[in-house]
Amino acid sequence: MGKEIPAEKSLNLIRGRLCDPSFIFGPLSASSDSNYSKLKFIVSTSITEGCNNSILLLGPRGSGKAAVLDLVVGDLLEQFPDSVSVIRLNGLLHSDDNCAFKEIARQLCMEHHLLFSKMASFDENSHFIIAMLRECGLAHKTIIFVLDEFDMFAQGKQRLLYSLLDAMQSVTSQAVVIGISSRLDADQLLEKRVRSRFSHRKILFLPPSRDELDGLLEHLLSLPADSSFPSGYVSRFNDKIKNITSDRRFKDILKTFFNAHSTVNSFLKFIFCAVSLMNLESGLLSLENFKAALSRMQRQPKLEAVRDCSVLELYLLVCMRRLEVKEQNSYNFISVMKEYKAIHDSFQTSDYYAQNVCIRGFEHLRERQVICYAENRGQSQTGEYRPMKLLISASELHQGMRSHACCPAILLKLLDH
Amino acid sequence: MPTNAAGASLSSYKYFVTTGTVKFESLESAAYEIPRKRKSRSDSAAAVNLMSGNSLSSPKKLKSHRPCFVSNPRISVKEVMEILRDPVNLVVQKLSDCLGSKSNWNPRDEEQMRAVKEALHVSKAPSTIVCREDEHIRIFGFVKGCIDQQKAGSLYICGCPGTGKSLSMEKVVQQVGDWSTQAGLPPVDTLSVNCTSLTKTTDIFSKILGEIKPGKNANTNSSPLQHLQSLFSQKQASSSSRMMLIIADEMDYLITKNRGVLYDLFLLTTLPFSRCILIGVANAIDLADRFLPKLKSLTCKPMVITFRAYSKDQILRILQERLMVLSYVAFQPKALELCARKVAAASGDMRKALCVCRSALEILEMEVRRSAGPESQGPTTDDSVVRMDHMAAALSKTFKSPVVETIQSLPQHQQIIICAATKAFRGSKKDTTVGELNMLYLEICKSWMISPAGITEFTNMCTVLNDQGILKFGQARGDKPKRVSLRVDESDITFALQEIRFFRNCLV
């Protein structure tokens, strides 16, 4: 019993760390060249100098744009407690202009403890916003507009973007507009008037380098040497981590992983998966955990479906594939049965089943989404006459059959020729 | 340098000369304001008004009936003529005077940095507008003509974004107000509408009606347009015969399917007792021709004034004007020239030029902060101004698209997908399905002996690339038949992947 408790505690600690963006992006943002410092510099100079600015944060999903922005905003709210207010909009929710103006007015009212009326019209909302911008400008309070999914705001007439960016062209307002987008060409989507008013500052979130990731791994997985853990356990845990990370096989695992995923978020998911597989008896991580996590992240559902098929179902799949190879692109159950019979006749296989058993096999395959009806129209026809098609490719079928537990050799031969 | 003929040039030269001197004077008076970090907005707005008000108040001395934006009562006409005999060197001399007499610039001084950034900010309108004298003269002449003859008229101003249209309109409105008070005419009502703020296009008529008859209850029988039309078709009582200047910004938002609103707006000026001077501002050069062909037959086609994109010299001059208010030199002249040249070649958009300059200033600031340490507080030599390399870095940050960097930092499988797509779309084919792209991908993987990713992961990676704007998905049910096309130029991809031998051979 005494051994389990530190293991669980360490598991909780590491999992908690993995879900805390400030813990993760803290070391990644430490250098003065990082995106965090660049963003902080731009926004804080805008606040202290009272000039307007607009920035775009670009990068693939999961690269930490919103997390770094939250860190920066948190720091600024601490540094300038009374002169910053934040308005957040999301392109998926507020891309309609009316909706967006209403939301901005509502958030402004909440920030400044005013009463918000749901019945206010578009005109009234926009007058209110302009008046508030002017008031805040006079009072030297900066408003930070955070526009998530910026490319969604660039659809339609772009009235919201035009109004916001135009308000920033006048000397009476003091605002910073920060757009977050995963599309690299987000500023090309803007109309030329809006693009002219946008100040073309872009911060690109590139995936971190290998050294940074190694450092991050160490930082995440090392247990602190404090009194809540038995001291021997901590040193054993940390030594085991060091052994694993210096192992060549671990480096291979990481290399395979990074060939397909490069963002910080996917890396964190991978570590989370590995850590969750930790053996609670020993309380230490092992290389097998990481291997298992990698195979979990590289699951191929269709392959698993084929691997779980019965032999009859494999026969049916092979028949369908052969029909396809023979350039017979539309086939139904009856033609598959004909092919099945032809195979049985020419090769004298032992697996020959009656038609109603085969129909059940077909239904199983359809449920697992390995095959499906080719069109949704002919609903009136019975299932046997409707055209069908395969949902997996030949190579997947091949691979699945080879890894099948008891696939008859004749099937592989039939598929190949 | 102004290049037009004698009449216009005289006033423009005068304006240029006197600008410099007035600025210096006002600098000394305004200098004490700069050190205050948080001067309130109302103060600065009042100061600007005061300055321009002073400068506009004394054009009476000059005989020409074209207005001068600023004039210094202390320089007599004779002196002006003398200086004018040597106009070419005037700019250079003034500039070198400035350079010689300026105190030193210390990039570590926050106040100085802030003042420079403020001078270069887009929202700060300079008190005089350079390089648009021609257009000003034409617009003001038109408005004056309408007011003099008490006739209505329409004018259409077009130009690319960032060419100073809205700024010029504000100045013209100010000018008209001042001129009409001096000439003793009744004041001109002004209505400035930004058409993006209208919920419905017909709201513009209610706004105009609101200006003409403020506070009058809306007549529910007729729409505002009909009311206006009836108003302008009857002779007015002389007490209410004030001209009205209507400025419609971003007029292309008023374009509806049947162009009704636009036609009605322009036709308002043709009614016999109309008192509106309509000035429409938009980007399209041929808005009047394309959307309002009927106006030509009714002979009320509006006069068109085009604000051309700024040339390199104009951009340079505007930047220098803005920086002349400061008492120190923050930019190397060659750096400014590089910026002007690049921006003029790209779009001629002034906002972009200002943005690039501020960006270069920030690069200098970060460099100075990073190297802060044992260096003494005293200003150093050329190191502390914005040099060509800062400007070049700022230009590349603004103009370069992030596509190349992103492609270089993608994981290997996604790069292979992009490579496969490039090869597929080399010929005339511009899109293909996900299934076919998968086949190409598997071929490439097989030829390099890399184990390929399964179809699910392949589709996921294609979705990631679609999110980033590198590939484009069409609409389809299911994953396999979805059409895929490339959004990025092939040359960008080849450039990005040229370092890696695999891709270089593949894309050859």
TrEMBL record, chain B:
* One GO CC term on file: nucleus
* InterPro entries reported for this sequence: AAA_22 (IPR049945), Cdc6/18 (IPR016314), Cdc6_C (IPR015163), Cdc6_ORC1-like_ATPase_lid (IPR054425), ORC1/CDC6 (IPR050311), P-loop_NTPase (IPR027417), WH-like_DNA-bd_sf (IPR036388), WH_DNA-bd_sf (IPR036390)
Question: Might you name a Gene Ontology BP term for this protein?
Answer: DNA replication initiation
- UniProt cross-references to CDD domains, sorted A to Z: AAA, Cdc6_C
Q: Name any one GO molecular function.
A: ATP hydrolysis activity
Boundaries of each Cdc6 C-terminal domain copy?
Answer: 418-497
Q: Which UniProt keywords apply?
A: Cell cycle, Cell division, DNA replication, Nucleus
| Pfam families cross-referenced by the UniProt entry | AAA_22, Cdc6-ORC-like_ATPase_lid, WHD_Cdc6
Q: Which family does it belong to?
A: Belongs to the CDC6/cdc18 family.
Question: What's the name of the protein?
Answer: Cell division control protein
User: What species is this protein from?
Assistant: Arabidopsis lyrata subsp. lyrata
